[in-house]
Protein backbone atom coordinates (compact mmCIF):
# COMPACT_ATOMS: atom_id res chain seq x y z
CA UNK A 1 0.00 0.00 0.00
CA UNK A 2 2.80 2.40 0.91
CA UNK A 3 4.46 1.70 -2.42
CA UNK A 4 1.25 2.47 -4.32
CA UNK A 5 0.79 5.72 -2.40
CA UNK A 6 4.40 6.70 -3.06
CA UNK A 7 3.95 6.08 -6.80
CA UNK A 8 0.80 8.18 -6.77
CA UNK A 9 2.61 11.07 -5.08
CA UNK A 10 5.54 10.84 -7.50
CA UNK A 11 3.14 10.78 -10.46
CA UNK A 12 1.33 13.85 -9.13
CA UNK A 13 4.59 15.72 -8.63
CA UNK A 14 5.75 14.79 -12.13
CA UNK A 15 2.45 16.04 -13.59
CA UNK A 16 2.81 19.36 -11.73
CA UNK A 17 6.44 19.67 -12.85
CA UNK A 18 5.62 18.99 -16.50
CA UNK A 19 2.67 21.38 -16.43
CA UNK A 20 4.90 24.09 -14.99
CA UNK A 21 7.52 23.49 -17.66
CA UNK A 22 4.92 23.63 -20.39
CA UNK A 23 3.46 26.86 -19.01
CA UNK A 24 6.91 28.48 -19.23
CA UNK A 25 7.38 27.54 -22.86
CA UNK A 26 7.00 30.51 -25.23
CA UNK A 27 3.92 30.68 -27.41
CA UNK A 28 4.77 30.43 -31.09
CA UNK A 29 3.37 33.13 -33.36
CA UNK A 30 3.63 33.13 -37.14
CA UNK A 31 3.84 36.77 -38.27
CA UNK A 32 3.57 37.70 -41.94
CA UNK A 33 4.77 41.15 -43.05
CA UNK A 34 3.65 42.59 -46.37
CA UNK A 35 7.22 43.51 -47.34
CA UNK A 36 10.63 44.07 -45.76
CA UNK A 37 10.77 47.79 -45.10
CA UNK A 38 12.60 50.21 -42.85
CA UNK A 39 9.16 51.78 -42.48
CA UNK A 40 8.41 48.93 -40.03
CA UNK A 41 11.35 49.72 -37.76
CA UNK A 42 9.37 49.36 -34.48
CA UNK A 43 8.48 45.78 -35.42
CA UNK A 44 12.14 44.84 -35.87
CA UNK A 45 12.97 46.64 -32.63
CA UNK A 46 10.38 44.48 -30.84
CA UNK A 47 12.15 41.40 -32.23
CA UNK A 48 15.75 42.51 -31.69
CA UNK A 49 15.34 44.13 -28.27
CA UNK A 50 13.54 41.06 -26.91
CA UNK A 51 10.17 42.67 -26.26
CA UNK A 52 8.23 39.73 -27.74
CA UNK A 53 10.43 37.35 -25.76
CA UNK A 54 9.68 39.26 -22.54
CA UNK A 55 5.99 38.59 -23.18
CA UNK A 56 6.58 34.86 -23.62
CA UNK A 57 6.20 34.91 -27.40
CA UNK A 58 8.36 33.19 -29.98
CA UNK A 59 7.64 35.19 -33.14
CA UNK A 60 8.54 33.70 -36.50
CA UNK A 61 8.70 36.47 -39.11
CA UNK A 62 7.96 35.76 -42.76
CA UNK A 63 7.81 38.24 -45.63
CA UNK A 64 4.95 37.80 -48.08
CA UNK A 65 5.91 40.50 -50.64
CA UNK A 66 2.42 41.81 -51.36
CA UNK A 67 -0.84 42.69 -49.62
CA UNK A 68 -2.84 39.99 -51.38
CA UNK A 69 -0.29 37.33 -50.46
CA UNK A 70 -0.18 38.53 -46.86
CA UNK A 71 -3.95 38.30 -46.49
CA UNK A 72 -4.00 34.88 -48.14
CA UNK A 73 -1.49 33.69 -45.55
CA UNK A 74 -3.62 35.10 -42.71
CA UNK A 75 -6.96 33.77 -43.96
CA UNK A 76 -5.54 30.32 -44.70
CA UNK A 77 -3.90 30.08 -41.24
CA UNK A 78 -0.41 30.08 -42.72
CA UNK A 79 0.04 33.15 -40.48
CA UNK A 80 -1.49 34.00 -37.10
CA UNK A 81 -0.95 37.75 -37.39
CA UNK A 82 -0.35 39.96 -40.43
CA UNK A 83 1.35 43.34 -40.75
CA UNK A 84 -0.32 44.96 -43.74
CA UNK A 85 -2.34 47.99 -44.80
CA UNK A 86 -5.79 48.41 -43.26
CA UNK A 87 -7.35 48.63 -46.71
CA UNK A 88 -6.90 44.87 -47.07
CA UNK A 89 -9.24 44.22 -44.12
CA UNK A 90 -11.91 46.29 -45.92
CA UNK A 91 -11.45 44.24 -49.09
CA UNK A 92 -11.90 41.02 -47.11
CA UNK A 93 -14.98 42.39 -45.35
CA UNK A 94 -16.55 43.34 -48.69
CA UNK A 95 -16.18 39.73 -49.87
CA UNK A 96 -18.65 38.67 -47.17
CA UNK A 97 -16.02 36.84 -45.16
CA UNK A 98 -17.43 35.14 -42.08
CA UNK A 99 -14.20 35.56 -40.15
CA UNK A 100 -13.08 39.17 -40.53
CA UNK A 101 -9.52 40.41 -40.32
CA UNK A 102 -9.52 42.71 -37.30
CA UNK A 103 -7.12 45.67 -36.96
CA UNK A 104 -5.83 45.58 -33.37
CA UNK A 105 -2.49 47.41 -33.25
CA UNK A 106 -1.30 50.24 -35.48
CA UNK A 107 2.39 50.45 -36.39
CA UNK A 108 2.67 53.33 -38.89
CA UNK A 109 0.43 56.37 -39.17
CA UNK A 110 1.48 58.04 -42.44
CA UNK A 111 2.28 56.95 -45.95
CA UNK A 112 5.87 55.75 -46.12
CA UNK A 113 6.73 56.55 -49.73
CA UNK A 114 8.70 59.40 -51.24
CA UNK A 115 8.47 60.86 -54.71
CA UNK A 116 11.76 60.18 -56.48
CA UNK A 117 12.68 61.92 -59.73
CA UNK A 118 15.24 60.55 -62.14
CA UNK A 119 16.75 64.00 -62.66
CA UNK A 120 17.57 66.66 -60.01
CA UNK A 121 14.61 68.98 -59.28
CA UNK A 122 15.89 71.69 -56.90
CA UNK A 123 12.76 73.83 -57.46
CA UNK A 124 10.27 70.96 -57.68
CA UNK A 125 6.54 71.63 -57.70
CA UNK A 126 3.86 68.99 -58.18
CA UNK A 127 2.99 70.66 -61.48
CA UNK A 128 6.32 69.29 -62.76
CA UNK A 129 4.86 65.79 -62.84
CA UNK A 130 2.32 66.70 -65.55
CA UNK A 131 2.85 64.91 -68.88
CA UNK A 132 5.55 62.75 -67.29
CA UNK A 133 5.97 58.99 -67.25
CA UNK A 134 5.13 57.97 -63.69
CA UNK A 135 5.92 54.49 -62.40
CA UNK A 136 3.05 53.79 -60.01
CA UNK A 137 2.28 51.13 -57.46
CA UNK A 138 -0.23 48.26 -57.48
CA UNK A 139 -3.82 49.29 -58.19
CA UNK A 140 -5.86 49.20 -54.97
CA UNK A 141 -2.79 49.21 -52.71
CA UNK A 142 -2.20 51.99 -50.21
CA UNK A 143 0.90 53.49 -51.90
CA UNK A 144 -0.98 53.91 -55.18
CA UNK A 145 -4.18 55.21 -53.56
CA UNK A 146 -2.28 57.74 -51.45
CA UNK A 147 -0.26 58.73 -54.52
CA UNK A 148 -3.43 59.45 -56.48
CA UNK A 149 -4.96 61.28 -53.51
CA UNK A 150 -1.96 63.61 -53.21
CA UNK A 151 -1.72 64.23 -56.96
CA UNK A 152 -5.41 65.15 -57.11
CA UNK A 153 -4.93 67.41 -54.10
CA UNK A 154 -2.47 69.37 -56.28
CA UNK A 155 -4.84 69.48 -59.25
CA UNK A 156 -3.29 66.61 -61.18
CA UNK A 157 -5.40 63.80 -62.62
CA UNK A 158 -3.09 60.78 -62.42
CA UNK A 159 -4.88 58.98 -65.26
CA UNK A 160 -5.28 61.95 -67.60
CA UNK A 161 -2.25 64.12 -66.86
CA UNK A 162 0.37 61.38 -66.50
CA UNK A 163 1.56 58.33 -68.39
CA UNK A 164 0.83 56.17 -65.32
CA UNK A 165 2.44 52.71 -65.44
CA UNK A 166 1.07 50.11 -63.02
CA UNK A 167 2.14 46.82 -64.58
CA UNK A 168 5.23 46.18 -62.43
CA UNK A 169 5.24 43.91 -59.36
CA UNK A 170 6.01 45.70 -56.09
CA UNK A 171 9.39 44.01 -55.59
CA UNK A 172 10.53 44.92 -59.13
CA UNK A 173 9.54 48.62 -59.12
CA UNK A 174 12.96 50.01 -58.05
CA UNK A 175 14.79 48.05 -60.73
CA UNK A 176 12.23 49.01 -63.37
CA UNK A 177 12.72 52.68 -62.52
CA UNK A 178 16.48 52.47 -62.93
CA UNK A 179 16.37 50.55 -66.21
CA UNK A 180 13.25 52.12 -67.71
CA UNK A 181 12.18 55.52 -69.00
CA UNK A 182 9.96 56.56 -66.04
CA UNK A 183 10.66 60.09 -64.81
CA UNK A 184 9.05 59.64 -61.37
CA UNK A 185 8.44 56.80 -58.94
CA UNK A 186 7.15 56.23 -55.39
CA UNK A 187 9.73 54.48 -53.21
CA UNK A 188 10.02 53.45 -49.57
CA UNK A 189 13.13 53.88 -47.47
CA UNK A 190 15.93 52.92 -47.50
CA UNK A 191 15.58 52.43 -51.28
CA UNK A 192 14.80 56.11 -51.86
CA UNK A 193 17.89 57.31 -49.97
CA UNK A 194 20.04 54.58 -51.53
CA UNK A 195 19.04 55.73 -55.01
CA UNK A 196 19.83 59.31 -54.08
CA UNK A 197 23.26 58.37 -52.72
CA UNK A 198 24.04 56.32 -55.85
CA UNK A 199 22.79 59.03 -58.21
CA UNK A 200 19.95 56.87 -59.52
CA UNK A 201 17.24 59.25 -58.35
CA UNK A 202 16.47 62.32 -56.28
CA UNK A 203 13.91 62.63 -53.45
CA UNK A 204 11.71 65.62 -54.24
CA UNK A 205 8.63 65.18 -52.00
CA UNK A 206 7.06 63.07 -49.25
CA UNK A 207 3.65 61.47 -49.71
CA UNK A 208 3.46 60.96 -45.94
CA UNK A 209 3.67 64.68 -45.27
CA UNK A 210 1.08 65.43 -47.94
CA UNK A 211 -1.60 62.86 -47.05
CA UNK A 212 -1.96 63.22 -43.26
CA UNK A 213 -2.51 60.46 -40.70
CA UNK A 214 -3.85 57.13 -41.92
CA UNK A 215 -3.68 53.57 -40.52
CA UNK A 216 -1.10 52.77 -43.16
CA UNK A 217 0.33 49.58 -41.66
CA UNK A 218 -1.47 47.68 -38.92
CA UNK A 219 -1.20 44.35 -37.15
CA UNK A 220 -4.36 42.35 -37.77
CA UNK A 221 -5.66 38.88 -37.14
CA UNK A 222 -8.87 36.97 -37.63
CA UNK A 223 -11.70 37.53 -35.17
CA UNK A 224 -11.63 33.82 -34.35
CA UNK A 225 -7.97 34.08 -33.33
CA UNK A 226 -8.78 36.93 -30.94
CA UNK A 227 -11.71 34.96 -29.51
CA UNK A 228 -9.51 31.93 -28.85
CA UNK A 229 -6.21 33.67 -27.98
CA UNK A 230 -7.02 37.08 -26.50
CA UNK A 231 -4.22 36.88 -23.93
CA UNK A 232 -1.71 36.13 -26.69
CA UNK A 233 -2.91 39.13 -28.72
CA UNK A 234 -2.60 41.30 -25.60
CA UNK A 235 1.00 40.13 -25.07
CA UNK A 236 1.80 40.79 -28.72
CA UNK A 237 0.33 44.29 -28.50
CA UNK A 238 2.24 45.01 -25.28
CA UNK A 239 5.51 44.09 -26.99
CA UNK A 240 4.66 46.39 -29.90
CA UNK A 241 3.88 49.23 -27.50
CA UNK A 242 7.22 48.73 -25.74
CA UNK A 243 8.97 48.93 -29.09
CA UNK A 244 7.07 52.08 -30.05
CA UNK A 245 8.18 53.75 -26.82
CA UNK A 246 11.77 52.59 -27.41
CA UNK A 247 11.78 54.08 -30.91
CA UNK A 248 10.49 57.40 -29.58
CA UNK A 249 13.11 57.52 -26.82
CA UNK A 250 16.15 56.49 -28.85
CA UNK A 251 18.13 58.14 -31.62
CA UNK A 252 17.95 57.16 -35.27
CA UNK A 253 21.52 55.85 -34.96
CA UNK A 254 20.63 53.55 -32.05
CA UNK A 255 17.53 52.29 -33.86
CA UNK A 256 19.62 51.61 -36.96
CA UNK A 257 22.11 49.57 -34.94
CA UNK A 258 19.27 47.56 -33.41
CA UNK A 259 17.57 46.61 -36.65
CA UNK A 260 20.57 46.34 -38.99
CA UNK A 261 20.35 42.50 -39.08
CA UNK A 262 17.18 42.93 -41.17
CA UNK A 263 18.96 45.22 -43.66
CA UNK A 264 22.42 43.72 -43.97
CA UNK A 265 23.01 45.18 -47.44
CA UNK A 266 22.38 48.77 -46.30
CA UNK A 267 25.07 50.85 -44.64
CA UNK A 268 24.42 51.95 -41.06
CA UNK A 269 24.59 55.67 -41.80
CA UNK A 270 22.05 55.30 -44.60
CA UNK A 271 19.70 53.35 -42.31
CA UNK A 272 20.00 56.07 -39.68
CA UNK A 273 19.30 58.84 -42.21
CA UNK A 274 16.22 56.99 -43.48
CA UNK A 275 14.91 56.38 -39.95
CA UNK A 276 15.49 60.02 -39.11
CA UNK A 277 13.43 61.01 -42.15
CA UNK A 278 10.52 58.85 -40.95
CA UNK A 279 10.82 60.13 -37.39
CA UNK A 280 10.82 63.74 -38.60
CA UNK A 281 7.46 63.30 -40.31
CA UNK A 282 5.99 61.23 -37.42
CA UNK A 283 5.48 58.12 -39.53
CA UNK A 284 5.90 55.72 -36.61
CA UNK A 285 2.78 55.49 -34.43
CA UNK A 286 3.50 56.34 -30.81
CA UNK A 287 0.92 53.85 -29.51
CA UNK A 288 -1.02 50.93 -31.03
CA UNK A 289 -4.45 52.62 -31.04
CA UNK A 290 -6.06 53.13 -34.45
CA UNK A 291 -8.46 56.04 -33.99
CA UNK A 292 -11.65 56.75 -35.91
CA UNK A 293 -10.36 59.92 -37.60
CA UNK A 294 -7.52 57.94 -39.18
CA UNK A 295 -10.00 55.24 -40.29
CA UNK A 296 -12.22 57.84 -41.96
CA UNK A 297 -9.22 59.40 -43.69
CA UNK A 298 -8.34 55.96 -45.05
CA UNK A 299 -11.86 55.53 -46.44
CA UNK A 300 -11.73 58.98 -48.03
CA UNK A 301 -8.47 58.09 -49.78
CA UNK A 302 -9.89 54.77 -50.99
CA UNK A 303 -13.09 56.44 -52.15
CA UNK A 304 -11.15 59.12 -54.05
CA UNK A 305 -9.27 56.34 -55.84
CA UNK A 306 -12.52 54.51 -56.64
CA UNK A 307 -11.41 51.52 -54.56
CA UNK A 308 -13.75 51.65 -51.53
CA UNK A 309 -15.93 48.52 -51.93
CA UNK A 310 -18.10 49.22 -48.87
CA UNK A 311 -18.52 51.95 -46.25
CA UNK A 312 -17.27 49.78 -43.41
CA UNK A 313 -18.04 51.13 -39.91
CA UNK A 314 -15.02 51.68 -37.69
CA UNK A 315 -16.47 49.40 -34.99
CA UNK A 316 -16.70 46.46 -37.39
CA UNK A 317 -13.03 46.02 -38.22
CA UNK A 318 -11.12 47.90 -35.51
CA UNK A 319 -10.52 46.57 -32.00
CA UNK A 320 -9.07 49.24 -29.68
CA UNK A 321 -9.95 47.49 -26.42
CA UNK A 322 -6.79 45.41 -26.37
CA UNK A 323 -4.50 48.38 -27.10
CA UNK A 324 -6.29 50.51 -24.52
CA UNK A 325 -5.85 47.82 -21.87
CA UNK A 326 -2.15 47.52 -22.69
CA UNK A 327 -1.58 51.27 -22.48
CA UNK A 328 -3.44 51.57 -19.18
CA UNK A 329 -1.39 48.79 -17.51
TrEMBL record:
<comment type="similarity">
    <text>Belongs to the bacterial solute-binding protein SsuA/TauA family.</text>
</comment>
<keyword id="KW-0732">Signal</keyword>
<dbReference type="Pfam" id="PF13379">
    <property type="entry name" value="NMT1_2"/>
</dbReference>
<dbReference type="GO" id="GO:0042597">
    <property type="term" value="C:periplasmic space"/>
</dbReference>
<feature type="signal peptide">
    <location>
        <begin position="1"/>
        <end position="19"/>
    </location>
</feature>
<protein>
    <recommendedName>
        <fullName>SsuA/THI5-like domain-containing protein</fullName>
    </recommendedName>
</protein>
